[in-house]
Amino acid sequence: MKTILAWLLWLWMCLVLYGAFLxxxxxxxFAAGQxxxxxxxxxxxxxxxxxxxxxxxxWSARYLLGGRRAEHDRAAAVAIQxxxxxxxxxxxxxxxWARIEWGAFWNWDPRQTSITLSLLFYAAYLALRSAVEDAxxxxxxxxxxxxxxxxxxxFLYFIVPRITFSLHPEPLVNADGKIDMDSEMRQVLFAxxxxxxxxxxxxxxxxxxxxxxADRKSAHFYE
Amino acid sequence: xxxDASTWAAEAAAVFAKDWRCEFRTRYALNTLALFAFTTLVxxxxxxxxxxVSAAKGTPVLPTLLWxxxxxxAAAGLPRSFVHEEETQTATALRLAATPSALFxxxxxxxxxxxxxxxxxxxxVYLAMMSLEVHSPWLLVGTLAAGGYGxxxxxxxxAAMIAQAxxxxxxxxxxxxxxxxxxxxxxxxxxxxxxxxxxxxMALTQILLYDGTVTVAxxxxxxxxxxx
Lengths: 223, 228
Hints:
The complex is a heterodimer. By secondary structure, chain A is mainly α. Chain A starts with a helix and ends with a helix. Chain A is built from six helices and no strands. Chain A has one domain (about 40-220). Chain A is globular and about 65 Å long. By secondary structure, chain B is mainly alpha-helical. Chain B has one domain (about 1-225). Chain B contains nine helices and no strands. In chain B, helix 1 (about 1-25) crosses helix 6 (about 100-130), helix 2 packs antiparallel against helix 3 (about 55-75) and helix 8 runs antiparallel to helix 9. The interface of A and B includes residues 145 and 160 of A.
């Protein structure tokens, strides 16, 4: 069953790639219309990193409330690793697009600022994990830090837009509640959202199983 | 009910009194905090040169430097409140003696008095040295109070966490700065408004909201951090 799902995901992502480069038309009103195709990868990756951090908080809460099971701690840690990976990819693709469209890789746009600061937070989470040896203490402390993350980082989204100014395109769900895209672009983008979310959970599952095997092996080694 | 509340308050007060009694035996935290902040202040002032910065540049730049001095001084002195308990192996006795929330409040009160002392000491000297004129002094006082409280609350929780890890000194900065960053941005913004005399605006509400959020989160999470 799992193999079939993985193949379906592969097929789906191929379709997304095809759609992104050959089916959707280049956007209008940009300096280089073709560069707008990055939206099909950049936005879903930013979305996935947010999903990953939220999922990590849920697993952390389950770890603290549900009997301190190692698998919940592992799931939270892997989600944050993957969230950082997708967050860095979203930042890099964003910077590339910013170079083409705004003329500079980096200009502390509000979105760039908030994502950098939240990535700092979750990088600190990994630093905390590597600084605690005892597995139970590590799980406990890092779960607390991950939960602190979901209450602290939202502040950035209120503060940062006030102190920096933005050139960013309107967010997908904007104040008017409508999406400024033609129907082909919208289809590909939502397919990509779905694909990337599934990709995240698939990678998460694989990495958790690998980590569980590695943990069991090292436990066996120390016996 | 009342009896519970009074024992809780007594526990918190006892932790607070104990910390200050220990502090007055060595004066370690007071000395390091004050000297660290003062040294940084001198370094900042000297490196800006004898003329300082012009008034036009001073309003945006100088509030940032003031808060950076306070942040680094807090990072140098506050972690000790918990690291000390683990080093001298008194943490277990403390776990038996007080409920986690009372202990947290006692420690928070101790850190708060340290930060307040630091601010009272450093801010006037800083303003005088940089010849920075403050147009709304009460906003500055309010900002120092709200910012100092957030600094103390965030640092107390992180200090309890890093006390159980390796590499305590550097780890504190790595973990605490991302948590304190929104606070720092707000405090700098408010201090700028105080200096230029603009109204406080949204930032004042947000800094109070931050303080409230950190307090509630810390009270909920501290028992997990403290009890293995």
